[in-house]
Specification:
5 helices; 166 residues; 5 strands; alpha/beta; globular
Length: 166
């Protein structure tokens, strides 16, 4: 039925770029530990439906907790592993995961100076979406950004995809 051919990254893909905090998991301050990942009702089922309809799903999330020194890259891998595990329990998956560890504001105790920069990946900049689009051969006309903030929407618009605010 053409599923394998359509799934080949040599073919333009329909993609959904999705934010994490407040979109997939409950927004509860700054997530710095795996046990803080609690999926919102219906989030895993929504990702599963996207997977079943052949949308590629890429997580694009600002994670300034790393620049602030509240967690390390290894901690973030464990946090994202918990998210993957919770999605997997529902039969859902993320095709790619992108996070921005930067934060432009200085003055936090324990911050990581080399990550305290202005970058092109921190939303509302479109860098993560553009990188994901290139990696997944996304067709912007068939792709969406879903998030819970105006920064998410601005990043999606700057990347040329349609947007949904949740």
């Amino acid at each position: 039925r053409g599923v394998v051919e359509r799934a080949s990254l040599s073919e333009p893909q329909a993609c959904v770029f999705v934010d994490r905090d407040g979109t997939l998991n409950a927004l509860d301050g700054h997530v710095s530990r795996p046990d803080q990942i609690v999926l919102l009702p219906g989030a895993a089922e929504a990702v599963k439906r996207l997977n079943q309809t052949e949308f590629r799903v890429a997580l694009v999330t600002n994670q300034p907790v790393i620049a602030r020194g509240d967690c390390t890259f290894a901690d973030m891998r464990r946090i994202l592993g918990r998210l993957d595990g919770l999605l997997e329990e529902a039969g859902a998956w993320l095709d790619r995961v992108y996070f921005c560890p930067h934060h432009p504001d200085v003055g936090f105790p324990g911050e990581v100076p080399e990550l305290k920069i202005r970058c092109d990946c921190r939303k509302p900049a479109p860098g993560m979406i553009l990188r994901a689009s290139a990696d997944l051969n996304a067709d912007p006309k068939r792709s969406w950004m879903i998030g819970d903030s105006t920064a998410d929407l601005a990043a999606g618009r700057a990347a040329g995809v349609r947007t949904i605010l949740v």
